[in-house]
Amino acid sequence: MAQGSDSNDTSYKSPSPGSRPSSSDDAKKVMRREKNRIAAQKSRMRQTQKADTLHLESENLEKENAALRKEVKQLTEEAKYLTTMLSSHEPLCSGLTPQTPDLLYPPHHSSYHQHIAVPHYQH
Description:
mainly alpha
């Protein structure tokens, strides 16, 4: 392997302007990089976990949607069937004869209402 081709090799340090950093500065830099690497790894894991959760939720919602559509179709067919059955039964049933308005509404008594004087305006 050619020297300098390994991207993980940290032995080569570019000279910084000014004075040479001390070994404690190098150690701090290495620690900061390691912390950053771990934080980035955790972030990627959280992002992957969130994507997996959303994917599962999407699949579950699609299944639920399909089941609800199937139920709507069955209920619609049942309603059509019951409407047809009712329509064919109505002419035969004596209990469904049309009622006269007198039976639907009680007779009107003037004592139920208070009479309010309404002013008449002249034009």
